[in-house]
Write a structure and sequence with these properties.
about 300 residues, transcription regulation, LysR_subst-bd, 8-stranded mixed beta sheet, D-Maltodextrin-Binding Protein, domain 2, Arc Repressor Mutant, subunit A, alpha/beta, WH_DNA-bd_sf, DNA-binding, single chain, transcription, 11 helices
Length: about 300
């Protein structure tokens, strides 16, 4: 059994699908199916139970292999990273978690410039809400993540990248559309359109409303900021969005209004584990991003 075979196994577990795992690894499904069958034959166990035509779940034996395979692959990656550093070879792979809003607003140009300078370093980007990104950096599934501050300083090193505030977004037909600024308490009776619970903004906005003495009337939740904006444009509710997103909005359909009393900060930071090993590639990425945002 090779490390590569364990990596295939871990991807099948991650995606709970042979097809999706094959797509993620850029190999064919028969290749990954053959590999899993080879592991099962070598160990004399069944690793996955097939339920119906598409769904698979781990067997007891598969769960035991999962616990050990993750450690073995991580140890192997640590060893190869150290050898790469020793040989001063600028190669590697970085797993980076980005909330959808962050990816759209800030990172495409930075990723392009990084690739120009380090063409042999692969960036594996994963889009999740900030809360899930933070959890997966903590568990080691991601090397680096971008999250909404505050974070757990005892667990993570961090660099603050962006300091902005939340703005009120309403349709041009809304009663507040001509207001230069609005207090949060004035939104007590408004229908709110929020991000899903995986997003740190979900909890931040609800907590801010509760501090002003009311529970927001949440009529819809989404993981997509552009869909939320379409709902706002249809006058189905209001939204609180970062300044960076508000710059992308159509002023013919939406109004962006300063939110006051209180001002709600939107501070983004890049995080990584304090006790985790940082590969050469990850350290180069951190230094590169810090320089780009500094400029």
């Amino acid at each position: 059994m090779e490390i590569r075979h364990l990596q295939y196994f871990l991807e099948v577990v991650r995606w709970q699908s042979f097809t999706k795992a094959a797509q993620a690894l850029y190999i064919t499904q028969p290749t990954i199916s053959k590999t899993i069958k080879m592991i099962e034959d070598e160990l004399g166990v069944v690793l996955f139970e097939r339920i119906g035509s598409k769904r698979i779940v781990l067997t007891d034996a598969g769960s035991i292999l999962l616990a050990q395979a993750g450690q073995m692959v991580q140890s192997f990656e640590y060893m190869t990273s150290r050898l790469d550093e020793l040989m001063q070879v600028k190669v590697g792979r970085i797993r980076i978690g980005l909330p959808p809003m962050v990816g759209v607003s800030f990172f495409p140009p930075i990723i392009g410039k990084f690739h120009e300078q380090f063409p042999k370093i692969t960036l594996q980007l994963v889009e999740h809400g900030a809360k899930k990104v933070e959890a997966e950096v903590g568990s080691g599934e991601l090397d680096i993540g971008v999250i909404l501050l505050p974070t757990k300083d005892e667990l993570f090193e961090s660099i603050c990248l962006v300091k902005q505030r939340l703005m009120l977004v309403v349709s041009t037909a809304h009663r507040l559309a001509s207001s230069p600024e609005v207090r949060l308490a004035e939104l007590r009776e408004e229908p709110f359109l929020l991000f899903h619970e995986d997003f740190a903004l979900h909890d931040r906005i609800i907590a801010a409303c509760e501090e002003q003495g009311f529970q927001p009337n949440v009529v819809y939740k989404s993981t997509q900021w552009d869909f939320i904006c379409e709902m706002v444009a249809a006058n189905l509710g209001i939204a609180l969005l970062p300044e960076a997103i508000c710059k992308e909005l159509d002023p013919q359909r939406l109004r962006v209004i300063a939110l006051t009393q209180p001002v709600l900060p939107w501070h983004l930071a890049m995080i990584w584990r304090r006790d985790g090993y940082l590969s050469y590639a990850a350290r180069e990425w951190i230094a590169f991003v810090q320089k780009m945002f500094g400029e």
